[in-house]
Amino acid sequence: MIPIGLVFFPLLGTVICIFLIFRFVVTNKFDLIAPFFDFCTSRMERKTLGPLRQQHIPHISGKTLDICVGTGRNIPYYPEGTEAVLVDSSSAMLKRAEKRADLFPNRRLKLNYLNRDVQRLPFPDEFFDTVVSVDCFCSLEKPERVILELNRVLKRGGKAIFIEHGLVKSRYINHRLNFLTHFLTYPLLGTHMNRDIPAILDCAFQTESATPGRGTFCAYHCRKTESRGATLFSSVMANAMRGKTE
Predict the structure, then answer these.
(1) CA–CA gap between residue 34 and residue 166 (Å, rounded)
(2) SS3 for 71?
């Protein structure tokens, strides 16, 4: 009989090596997982995100910015004639989004694709009528900076639609989310399960409605207000200055 140590320790070492490579060597983990992403998230898409997209994405209008688009699962729900810029940090994901858009040739969609960090967008102030973010904030290291950028490029009075997951009213569930984040999802994938989404949005936008979805997901419809944008800018600048002095 083979001693369990001869099997367990090599297996453990292999897992640790894969983890270290995935976490610290791979420059963009989404480029690596792009071929398997739709398959791995198919159940969540079918049960949770799909219904939320179907309900809320058709509300976009005018010139639209869609960030963290991944493989383009919002595209099937774009209204006919939508003009949008789709942004993602993964070129492999964007290629799959383009292929998905090709499935709807009769929808007269005007889509442009931008492989870029969403913290620094190459657009002038007040450029878009609508901004959209779906399941994005969990993978952002500094979501407040992204909120600042979205506030900057959105027209005054413009519409913002966020479908995100994070903390909820249940302390029990929040404890579990904190545990998962600290000991599993952040060390392995760099993602956060415990974002306080309403607090993040409230810095830059006025939330008009919040529609709970399955699990910890919620859809938020927001508007840009000048005062909240100025408040966020002051907050971000203060934090930046504090970081320089520490």
Answers:
(1) 23
(2) coil
* 113, containing H or E segment: strand 110-115
Give, for all 246 residues of the chain, the pLDDT tens digit.
445 555 455 655 665 555 555 555 545 678 888 999 999 999 999 999 999 999 999 999 999 999 999 999 999 999 999 999 999 999 999 999 999 999 998 899 999 999 998 988 999 999 999 999 999 999 898 899 999 999 999 999 999 999 999 999 999 999 999 999 988 888 877 889 999 999 999 989 999 999 999 999 999 999 997 655 544 544 444 443 333 334
Q: What is the DSSP letter of 79?
A: P
pTM: 0.82
Contact 85, 114 (CB under 8 A): yes
Residues in the chain: 246
Q: Residue holding tokens 């993040």?
A: 200
Q: Do 159 and 59 contact (CB within 8 A), yes or no?
A: yes
Query: Regarding beta strands 128-134 and 154-165, do their DSSP bridges make them parallel or antiparallel, or are they unpaired?
Result: parallel
Q: Of 154, 115, 148, which is closest to residue 131 (Cα–Cα)? A: 154
Where do runs of H (alpha helix) occur along 3-135? 4-20, 29-40, 42-44, 50-56, 91-101
Q: What residue type is assigned to position 171 of the chain? A: R
**For the chain, percent helix, then strand, then coil, each to nearest 5?**
55, 20, 25
Helices vs. strands in the chain: H and E counts, helices first:
10, 7
Structure tokens at 221: 């419809």
